[in-house]
Structures are given as structure tokens and as C-alpha cells.
Design brief:
This protein has about 170 residues and is an alpha/beta fold. About 25% of the residues lie in helices and about 35% in strands. The protein has three helices and seven strands, in the order αβββαβαβββ. Strand 6 and strand 7 form a beta hairpin.
Length: about 170
């Protein structure tokens, strides 16, 4: 079964909005699939489409200051998916395309096949190799359901390093 990350992202956005409305949470808001385009004065070009932006009141009016959440499919036995995860997931945060005004970002890895215990180590090795100065992943102190949560930092062009939280969620 192919995991359609766009369908999952839309469903998650509906659930997030429902929960936020039901609990009357007004201290932040979600924006789904925000398009990042080239800066003013340059020929218009889409630089990326981040799955979610989480905006807190202090971010309002500051268009590059948001907690970014990006989702990608991943599998331990598919190196093409791992390369894509690193290049277009981690890479967009490292380049400052996503969340340049926020010190952290979140990557959700939809694990599409039964994963070996080495998936997070493999991703960590790839990130450290692709981004000199990046920190190896460290596991979170506790498990969240069946998701493996790890984090690391990646240098960011023109800004302090970005702390990236990786949630590897089984979808098989």
C-alpha cells in the first residue's frame, strides 16, 4: 500500500482544527501547506510547500517566523526516500527556506515499511554527512505511541543552527 502523504496531511489538518476548536485553543494557529516563493524583486519561483506552519501571536506579521512541520515518506530499505527526506526535508530548514525566523523545526517521517532499528541511525548518518557541522540524532527520553522521536541540530545559512525534531511514525 502506498502512503499518500498529501492525503494524510489534509486529514491531520482537519483533526488539528477540530481539536483546537473543541478545546477553544486560541494561543496559536495552524496554516496548512504554505507556499514559500522567491523574495520580492526576484522572478517568482516556488521554493517549497511546507506542510504546516504553526504561528504563535508573537509571529503574526513576521512571515518567516513560524514553527515549520514538514512530512516525508521514509523506509529503511529505500535509499531514494532517505535521500529525498534529507535533501528536501532537512535541506529546506538548513537553507532557511522553511522557518528561518524560528529556532526549531519538525520533520514527520511516514515510515512506509516495517523498519529496522537502524532507520533513525541511517538518517542521522546521512544528515551529518550532507550538512557539515550537523549534530547526530539523540533519542527523546520517552516514546510517543509507536513513533520514534529523535532530534539533532543542523547549521542554517545566515542564522543560528536549527534544532530539528524528527518523528518517525509507522504507517505500515
Amino acid at each position: 500500500m502506498r502512503v499518500d502523504e498529501n492525503f494524510i496531511s489534509m486529514a491531520i489538518m482537519q483533526w488539528l482544527e477540530e481539536i483546537q476548536h473543541r478545546r477553544d485553543i486560541t494561543s496559536f494557529m495552524f496554516i496548512h501547506e504554505a507556499v514559500k516563493v522567491s523574495p520580492l524583486g526576484q522572478r517568482p519561483k516556488i521554493l517549497g510547500r511546507i506542510d504546516y506552519k504553526v504561528l504563535f501571536p508573537q509571529h503574526f506579521g513576521r512571515y518567516n517566523a513560524y514553527l515549520g512541520v514538514e512530512s516525508k515518506r521514509i523506509a529503511s530499505d529505500r535509499s531514494a526516500l532517505a535521500r529525498y527526506y534529507v535533501a528536501t526535508g532537512v535541506g529546506k530548514f538548513a537553507s532557511g527556506v522553511y522557518g528561518e525566523g524560528h529556532p526549531a523545526g519538525i520533520l514527520v517521517g511516514y515510515v512506509v515499511r516495517a523498519s529496522s532499528q537502524t532507520l533513525s541511525q541511517d538518517l542521522s548518518d546521512r544528515v551529518v554527512k550532507a550538512f557539515p557541522g550537523a549534530a547526530a540524532f539523540k533519542p527523546y527520553p520517552r516514546q510517543y505511541g509507536s513513533a520514534a522521536i529523535v532530534e539533532g541540530t543542523v547549521p542554517r545559512q545566515g542564522h543560528p543552527p536549527v534544532r530539528l525534531i524528527h518523528a518517525l511514525v509507522p504507517m505500515h
